[in-house]
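Protocol step 4 of 5: obtain the predicted structure for the target chain.
Materials: sequence only (see below). No template structures provided, no constraints applied. The aim of this step is simply to have a reference model before the mutagenesis design in step 5. Sequence pasted as it appears in the construct record:
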Amino acid sequence: MWKWCFLFFAPLSLFSWLEGEYELFDEPEEEIVETFVDAYGTRVVDFDEMDQGIVLETKQIVIPGYPDAFNPSIVRWGGSLLLSFRIYNYETKTAHQTGLIWLDEEFNPIGEVQLLQMPFFDENCRMKRQDPRLFTIGERLFVTFNNVLQGISNREVRRMVWAEVFYDDGEFYALDSEVIADFEGIKDWRSEKNWVPFDYQGKAYFGYTLIPHKIMDSENWSIAASTRGDIRWDWGELRGGTPALLVDGNYLSFFHSSCSVASVHSGGRRVQHFFMGAYIFSGSFPFEIQKISSEPIFADRFYRGVPHKTWKPLQVIFPMGFIADGPLIWLVYGRQDHEVWVAKLSKEKLFESLTPVKNK
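Step 4 output (structure tokens):
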């Protein structure tokens, strides 16, 4: 197994910062490294050359009036494709609003963008929402995101929030939000992000961690199941990405991770790169992970393109949602905190690439 990542240690609350806060200061540029050598003597890595053929095609989704939309999520709801995305506000330099737009079957926008209206005021949270993900429970539409708790002055502590989404007279609005402020295993100082929602028999559950694979019950926020698989991943800590969907009788989801490497995409500089992989877990209790990627999913142009300025030097792809369509998987992801993309994946090749997991 090639070991590309340089590990570093920091408080977990610091790790929670590393995903796109625009208000934070820019870090100084790191020293340029002319070569990156792994155990096999390989020079600076080109991830485009590591394309496994899982991704058949990629397409940027350009949303009129929102040139820097990013981190999309997608559902099929009411028979149509609905896309959500984060909106970057140039005046405030923040990205806390959520846009929604219908797509046709070719993933082209239809009609006008609608802002997700959240007419509730939650005294526990500031208005600093991040990374909304759409998901369905039966025929009902929900959104989950993270937000910053009030009353903590020396750092940001984030908690997950979820709410049901309604559509009426051409407008989307979220009601009955719940801040998940107290749950089994909570650590007061640790921010929470990237929980993995899924529908099991008409009830919402959330994947909390991958190692071990802990599942939260949305009724009382206790750990409903916990299993530990023998998983090897050398590309940073495994974190949630997309909601999980039933595919061929089991749940499929895509995760993300990140670590610092030098690549041709970063100009030979050692910077933080984000990666994605997939995993399958059982379609019933105890929801043990059955198969998982042993290396990131790569594709041409994942890391090539417009060199958008990010809050610090980054190379970002960020999976947020997918739909399954027969032999194909359509995965939406954000690129460089400034773009929305969709990737067409071969389900057969994806499943063949996954490594069986032995649970202890």
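Step 4 remarks: The CA atoms of residues 101 and 112 lie 7 Å apart. The chain has a mean pLDDT of 87.
Proceed to step 5.
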